[in-house]
Design a protein that fits this description.
The complex is a heterodimer.
Chain A: H1 16-29, H2 37-46, H3 48-52, H4 71-85, H5 99-115, H6 133-149, H7 154-170
Chain B: H1 15-59, H2 67-117, E1 122-123, H3 126-138, E2 146-149, E3 158-162, E4 165-170, H4 179-194, H5 197-228, H6 234-238, H7 241-276, H8 283-289, H9 299-303, H10 310-319, H11 328-344, H12 346-353, H13 365-387, H14 399-415, H15 432-458, H16 466-497, H17 500-510, H18 513-533, H19 537-557, H20 567-593, H21 597-616, H22 627-631, H23 634-650, H24 663-686
Parallel strand pairs in B: 2-4
Antiparallel strand pairs in B: 1-2, 3-4
The chains are: A mainly alpha, B mainly alpha.
């Protein structure tokens, strides 16, 4: 079930496609965190669950507000997509998307790889029909649910899902 | 003329800070009780031996003794016992000192531990340090904290202080916030630093965590004594009901202290919010707090929550004042803590002052300590609520707030650790203390509100100066200390005599020279303030003069059972007539204005009492010799009367319709006449 809290495996190094997508999302949507990106990425690669697990300090002299870094959730979302599309996880929620959508998402990820110059032979995606609003909403919903399951505040999960989807589908940095 | 008011967090004293101090004092006094128990375990034999030798010396005095001889012998006995009593005080103080030392150590360790959990940390940029410095300066603070970024998993900003350095640790996610909201977070944390919360909170936590092992000390030493002793087993040592009661009371103390500390923490969050936006727009902070919807919480989660709900914080920010400082729950919490300091402070002070010139004042220690803390922790909260009410005269204090204090005091007297062993017999061997102390101290709260309401009606400017708050604190300290002191004395008298009338009469009119003089001076001072802040003074003077005239007429025209040849009894008749005049005025203004008349009663009742007593002086050829005694007998009894009726009086409805200038003085006649008649009928039971 997609509502079940899933747990990403600890990776020695994150999929380059996911890292690239994450960097683009942060650059476009959360530029204030860009300086921290490499450090957060290293921490995410070492212990993704630990990074997403908030420290509940219950500090007696505090402010009582919950202000999370967004890059860890961007990384979680991007990893979720890249691993899911590569069918590395047996029961991934990505399976609930239609095959057509999955194919187009996979090509978008590959196209980003192409722009990095690592696989110039990958097909271009500019000529493909754009995803409908309903299809985009479906992708955002799946990412939102995944991030909520990993402890993100619902508003944060929605915001990150929006940014990741738009960045992936537009092929550019920015929201 | 004192004029007020708009509340400035920079000048208005914080009830929250006094509540922290009260909490720490209560916990430290538990250490004194532990010290007292340890003294009983290890040094009681030598104490009893010395006491026995002191008593034996006294018994050898031959024949019957006069009262003066008895007093002298008691003095000699106390002098003889003084070294042992001083040792007892030192051991009790040792328990407190042990708790302080452990608490101070934990005060460093606990914040350090929290700081470590936020690691790795790194210093924020120079720009953030500058912002913090500017925030401190704008709030009038001195300590500039170091701003740091916490680990990537840190989500909550917090402030710690250890090794004499204050650190504000921000979550890195703050960088995503709009600049104004990020500044609002920094200003909120800085407000905690400026308000002195960091030290107070961690000291409270340190002492709280240090208390359980200290409380266990007598149990452990008792068990060890049982193991090594040939005559007693461990079960014999610890199987007594006393120890079960001790453990239960200790657990209750720790639980209540924890709940109250959470409660004060929440209150301090509001204060930090308000302080951080003082003199500037609250919009960024409001926008920040509006980001998170409140989740429904269980009652227990609400009680143990460190922060108030976002909706509550936004409400307080919107009103720009923390009038919710004065609710039933606040009064109950403060009253509970204050009641717990009453007896416990005596473990050090009373034996410590035995045999010294200050011994006569030793009973004042508990009421003085509790009174001062009540004045700042509750009195100022009441005044803030009254002065900040809009429009003026709108009832800012609800009945719950007035009843919270006595309820808390009664609960505190019941739960107090230092009363261990009295569960079946009651404090001081009876239950009268549970009635007298809450009623009279609750009355002090009512009188405090009455004075604040008088002041509020005179305000013409929008500023309350710092020295005005000092005066307010002094007035409240006088009210609460006096109420605690005389109510304790009256409760003990009631327990000894089993008569409420005896407790009232003797407590009010001869509750020790200290009480008589202090109460007379305090009542004259408070009455002067009430006159200064009252309106329609001519009407009040008319009420006072007529009440005095009726009381004097009754005193001279009605028959009484007083022996005309006994000058002492005749003097007491004069005093009672003076009290009747004051009581008549009190009833008059309450009948005319309801609860709002209580403040006017503080003005006119002492006036009528002094006037009547002054007329009584004309019986004397040389009246100057008895002026003092004519002031220091009726006024203290009137003070006790005012304190005793103030709580129910403050719960009356305030009459809104304008009073008649002719009718009010006539009421003085109507109400004073039955009072003086009742006194003349029962005077035989009132004089000695």
């Amino acid at each position: 079930m997609i509502l079940r809290r899933s747990s990403a495996p600890a990776l020695a190094s994150i999929d380059p496609d996911a890292a690239d997508l994450s960097r683009a999302v942060v650059e476009g949507c959360y530029p204030a965190e860009l300086d921290l990106f490499d450090a957060i990425l290293a921490k995410f690669e070492a212990d993704p669950d630990g990074l997403l697990e908030p420290d509940r300090l219950r500090a007696p002299v505090g402010m009582g507000v919950d202000i999370a870094l967004l890059t860890p959730y961007v990384l979680a979302a991007a990893t979720f997509l890249s691993v899911g599309l590569a069918e590395k996880l047996a029961d991934n929620a990505i399976d609930s998307l239609g095959q057509s959508i999955r194919d187009r998402l996979a090509r978008r990820l590959a196209a980003r790889r192409g722009r990095r110059g690592k696989a110039a032979s990958e097909p271009t995606v500019e000529s493909e029909p754009a995803l409908t609003v309903a299809e985009m909403d479906e992708i955002k919903m799946i990412i939102t649910i995944h991030l909520s399951g990993r402890g993100a505040d619902p508003a944060v999960a929605r915001d990150v899902a929006e940014c990741v989807t738009k960045t992936l589908l537009s092929g550019k940095s920015g929201c | 003329m004192l004029i007020a008011t708009d509340l400035d967090p920079a000048t208005a004293p914080s009830p929250g800070r006094a509540r922290y101090v009260l909490l720490v004092v209560v916990l430290l006094l538990a250490g004194a009780f532990v010290g007292n128990l340890l003294h009983r375990q290890f040094l009681s034999a030598s104490w009893h031996a010395l006491e026995q030798s002191c008593v034996t010396g006294m018994e050898q005095s031959p024949g019957s003794r006069s009262p003066e001889q008895v007093v002298a012998e008691v003095g000699q006995r106390l002098q003889c016992l003084a070294p042992a009593e001083h040792l007892r005080a030192m051991v009790a103080l040792g328990g407190t000192v042990l708790l302080i030392v452990l608490g101070l150590v934990l005060m460093q360790l606990l914040p350090y531990r929290l700081f470590r959990r936020a690691e790795p940390v790194r210093p924020a940029s120079v720009e953030w340090q500058r912002r913090a410095k500017e925030a401190v300066r704008s709030m009038g603070g001195r300590t500039t904290p170091v701003v740091m970024w916490g680990s990537f998993t840190l989500r909550e900003p917090f402030t710690v202080r250890y090794l004499r350095r204050t650190r504000i640790v921000l979550p890195p996610g703050v960088v995503n916030l709009p600049e104004a909201q990020a500044s609002a977070i920094l200003r909120h944390e800085t407000a905690h630093v400026v308000a002195g919360d960091v030290n107070l909170v961690w000291l409270t936590r340190g002492v709280w965590w240090a208390l359980p092992p200290v409380l266990l000390l007598p149990v452990v030493t008792g068990a060890i004594e049982g193991v090594v002793s040939d005559s007693k087993t461990v079960s014999q040592m610890l199987g007594q009901p006393f120890w079960f009661e001790y453990v239960a009371r200790a657990a209750v103390l720790l639980l209540l202290a924890a709940l109250i500390s959470f409660f004060v923490l929440r209150s301090r969050e509001h204060e930090a919010d308000l302080r951080s936006v003082h003199g500037m727009s609250a919009a960024p902070l409001q926008a920040l707090l509006s980001r998170w919807p409140d989740q429904p919480m269980s009652r227990w989660r609400q009680l143990t929550s460190i922060h108030p709900s976002f909706i509550h914080r936004l409400t307080v920010l919107g009103s720009r004042d923390l009038i919710t400082h004065a609710r039933f729950i606040e009064g109950a919490a403060v009253g509970l803590l204050a009641a717990m300091t009453l007896q416990a402070s005596g473990f050090v002070v009373i034996p410590g002052l035995t045999g010294t010139p200050l011994a006569a004042y030793s009973l004042l220690a508990g009421p003085l300590l509790a009174g001062i803390l009540l004045a700042i922790g509750w009195g100022t909260a009441l005044w803030r609520a009254v002065l900040s009410s809009r429009p003026a005269n709108h009832p800012a204090i609800n009945r719950g707030a007035l009843l919270g204090l006595p309820a808390g005091i009664a609960l505190g007297l019941l739960m107090d650790l230092s009363w261990t062993g009295t569960t079946t017999s009651g404090p001081f061997g009876g239950w009268s203390m549970l009635v007298t102390v809450p009623l009279v101290v609750g009355g002090a709260g009512g009188l405090s509100v009455a004075l604040a309401s008088l002041w509020a009606t005179r305000r013409t400017t929008a500023y309350t100066a710092r020295w005005n708050w000092l005066l307010i604190a002094v007035v409240n300290a006088v009210l609460f200390t006096g109420a605690l002191w005389i109510s304790q004395v009256a409760a003990q008298l009631q327990s000894l005599s089993d008569s409420w009338l005896y407790a009232y009469v003797v407590g009010g009119m001869s509750g020790g020279e200290g009480w008589l003089r202090s109460a007379a001076v305090a009542l004259i001072g408070i009455s002067a303030l009430a006159w200064a802040w009252s309106r329609r003074r001519l009407s009040l003077i008319a009420i006072g003069v007529l009440a005095s005239a009726v009381a004097m007429a009754g005193r001279w025209l009605l028959p009484s059972t007083v022996d005309p040849a006994n000058p002492g009894q005749l003097a007491q008749l004069d005093w009672w007539a003076a009290v009747a005049a004051g009581t008549g005025c009190l009833l008059t203004v309450l009948a005319v204005r309801g609860a709002a008349g209580l403040g006017q009663a503080l003005a006119v009742a002492p006036f009528a009492t002094v006037l009547t007593a002054a007329v009584g002086l004309f019986r004397y050829t040389h009246p100057w010799g008895v002026v003092e005694i004519y002031l220091t007998r009726p006024l203290p009894l009137l003070a006790l009367t005012l304190l005793a009726v103030a709580l129910p009086a403050a719960l009356l409805h305030t009459r809104a319709r304008p009073e008649s200038r002719l009718l009010s003085p006539l009421f003085a006649v109507v109400f004073t006449a039955p009072v003086i008649m009742l006194i003349m009928l029962t005077i035989g039971a009132l004089v000695w």
